[in-house]
Amino acid sequence: MIARTVMVAIMLLLALALQTTVFVVLPTGWFRPDLMLLIAVAFALTDGQLPGVRIGFAAGLLTDMLVALTPAGIASLVYAGVGYAVGGIRPYLAATSASAPLIIAFGSGIVGTATYGTIALLLGDERLTATMLLQVVSAVAFYNVVLAVPVFALVRRLAARFPLTGGTADEPVF
Amino acid sequence: MYQRRRTRLVLIAVTIVALILVTLDVRAGDSGMVHRARGLATAVLQPVQDGIAVIARPVIETMAGASSFFAVRRENEQLRQQVEILAERRRTVTDLERENQELRRLLLMQDRGAYDVVAARAVIIAPSSFEWTITIDVGSDDGVERDMPVVNGDGLVGRVVQVTPRASRVLLAIDPSFFAAARTARTGQIGPIEGRGGDPMIFRPLDPSSDIATGDEIVTSSYQGGVFPGGIPIGLVADAGQMDARLVREITVRPFVDFTRLHHVLVVLSSPVEPIPPLVGTPGFDFRAPDVPRFHDDTLNDDPISPDEDEDGETAETTSGVSATGASAGGGATPTLMTSAASG
Known about the structure:
The complex is a heterodimer of chains A (174) and B (344). Chain A is mostly helical and 174 residues long. Chain A has helices at 2-22, 35-47, 49-65, 74-89, 99-122, 130-161. Chain B has helices at residues 2-28, 33-67, 69-107, 307-310, 313-320, 333-343, and strands at residues 117-125, 133-136, 149-152, 155-163, 168-172, 179-184, 190-196, 199-203, 217-220, 233-239, 251-255, 264-268. Chain B is an alpha+beta fold and 344 residues long. Chain B is globular and about 90 Å long. In chain B, the strands form 2 sheets. Chain B has a 6-stranded antiparallel barrel with strand order 1-2-5-4-3-12. Chain B has 6 helices and 12 strands. At the A-B interface, helix 1, helix 3, helix 4, helix 5 and helix 6 of A face helix 1, helix 2 and strand 1 of B.
């Protein structure tokens, strides 16, 4: 239980570090993949709704703490919601399907980013325009699909190494 | 069944927490608990991210450099052509420098190029694609304050929006909320410039019919006590645009700074530019207004030009009596001109 919690925390911190340091030097302009959202989606797809909500909330909270202009709490709300939705879709997907994770990564990138931008817009973030929203949503969805295969593979391996129901009877934190 | 109910309860709980966070942040603004928590998170995570950046960046930049081999060859040819052009321009620049020094002496302008700066490294960028900010490794311990300008060797980078003791967050000039006073370097047309995210910046000259062409340089302007010192390069006009039906002209500006390659920047520690004091009263300033015909108020309703008054010695004496000291009283066309020149 503790090992899994530590593993998830380390993974989120590393993902945040990658998101804020490495991706900027990639030839992708300012638009980058949303690795935090992708990890929440991967855990939701692997372990279900509850881990999806919890890890989505944690990933969103970390993101909220490192933005300066958008109100805090939006990413927490959206990522937890996306984790819940993807976890809800999971029982209807074939476990061996290769295309399903890619479609989920694309769809969650669109829905998550568009919801985040729309809520920010509704809360008075006047910087955002419809054109910009479209650009960011498209870019994030595309890059998330590119990263989906390695991220999902890594999460599946880690989830198998640190399963939800381990040697203890208690349920894990994540 | 129990699992599903528990999941819903957790979802409701995190939704409530998130909404509380949003509410606290929106209502309290920069002085609230959430703002302090963000500052703390920045301060705690900055060393970790700094270490990862130091390790990862050289590797990835080498990979990116290898992939751009073919572009380098073409760029080499372009640079050779530019060297030839610049060699010719050098002679012109020498002459312009001499002229610049001469004009500065004539106008008794203070040289405002010497600012206190502190060097910083760009450590991390915002995790959100909706936000164009970076975090730098200097803070209030180094004298950094909110709203201080940030520049690098290419030009304007942005301004400081959040300060912690050892780190600060910088709003980049391309962020849609960025706004600065600017002018064209060639003609001096002033107006606001603003960022538009991933797209080029937009400059709106106050005079939409002004002479601005593609390739003109846009620099910061310090008019109206703006936060930026004047003359910091911002970018080149990519599209001069046309005046639209709203009588607004939007000029597309491509910034000099490559915002995806920010490594080292300078924070300008000087306080926002003070309005330039009027030339009148400056020691050594011996301006004398030229003789301009002037009429008494009681003659305004009469025929304004009469041969008698033109030859009247009293009128001429009054006009020549408008000295530099009396310029601020708005005594005529010339003092007004001097006032505007001094404040520009």
